[in-house]
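Late entry, written up from scratch paper. The run itself happened at the end of the previous shift, but nothing got recorded in the book at the time, so transcribing now.
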Amino acid sequence: MAEPYPGYDVLSKRNGLSWNETTRRVIAARLAVTREPRFFSAVRWRTLLRLCERILPQPADRPPVPLAAYVDEKMLSSGAHGTRIAPMPYDGDCWKIGLDATEIEAQAAHGVAFHDLADGDADALLHRMQDGDLHDPAWGDVAPKQFFAKRVLPDITGAYYAHPTAWSEIGFGGPASPRGYVRMEADRRDPWEATEARPGEEDKARAENRRVR
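Output as recorded:
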């Protein structure tokens, strides 16, 4: 599939006028997040890694966004407080229960760990989760359908779009501070925004995007 914003790398804005020091610190922390679990156990971590792979497969020609690491980091920092969806527990415990139950369902259905399931079998189990068609007592107060809709999808996709790699893919320039965005109408863009490639004009867009700062 053709790149919509060829040649664009949002990190080229790192030291330019588009980002302030607070933005630089936030992005540096996101790029430095550890790839080892600090909130989840080793077994839950392996289940989460496989879950992330099936929910949001990533291209093989670039380093992947560390989705599981971002979920782990989020649960470590805020999973034990904030809002929750009754009767489910707070987000961190919800994830622990959901991952444990997913592992049990995989073992019951296929006799192997979830992270060892073939792609088709893993996807079939996730479809059953989405439909609420999983019933092991291990789920407790975490309804599989709610877990999928309220934790799996938003937390994993939110992790993806918090990373600069995803910003480059969609032509996003990051926070609008201090420079700001001025041309807000449809089909208009500021000079420091990425150019979307029109059919047959990919080379032109690539050249323009490499100059974006």
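The chain has a mean pLDDT of 92.
(Scratch paper discarded after transcription.)
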